[in-house]
Amino acid sequence: MSYRVTFVCTGNICRSPMAEWILRHHVEEEGLDVEVDSSGTGNWHVGNAADERTIATLERAGYRSAHIARQFEADWFDRYDLIVALDSGHKRALKAMAPDEEAARKIRLLREFDPEAGGDLDVPDPYYGGTEDFDLVLKQVEAAMPGLLDEIRNGLKAA
């Protein structure tokens, strides 16, 4: 059975789809049995593609992208092994939706997997910014990948 990971941000058009496609790239490269997707805490962009700046940032870095935004739903907790929030506000929103403590334990912040992040665990929202803001998100997501992949490998071994 596949290990299932989802990323969650606000509208599911910037940070979480970027993280989704970067992780997809790495698990495909390693041949890991992992399903990856993403969603948002809000419904503003449901049905829309990823922000064009997200797509451009991913493409400049050599990643693929195909995405339709959706909103995270409380009954999805059983579907995932790991739910990765992009900032502490998303983590709080997800914890408020969690049906029980077991579900809440699945929620982690992405930058928890980056040993260089220190106490700054939020990935900033680039939506109202420019190219440099999207590049920063890409850099922060990529920095968390080695630790996240270790977590996933451990989860696959335990399954």
From TrEMBL:
Superkingdom of this protein's organism: Bacteria
Transmembrane segments: none
Catalytic residues as annotated in Swiss-Prot or TrEMBL: 9, 15, 125
GO molecular function, one term: protein tyrosine phosphatase activity
Enzyme class: hydrolase
Its EC number(s): 3.1.3.48
Domain Phosphotyrosine protein phosphatase I, residue spans: 3-151
Keywords, alphabetical: Hydrolase, Protein phosphatase
Family, as annotated: Belongs to the low molecular weight phosphotyrosine protein phosphatase family.
Protein name: protein-tyrosine-phosphatase
Organism, as annotated: Actinomadura hallensis
Lineage of the organism: Bacteria, Bacillati, Actinomycetota, Actinomycetes, Streptosporangiales
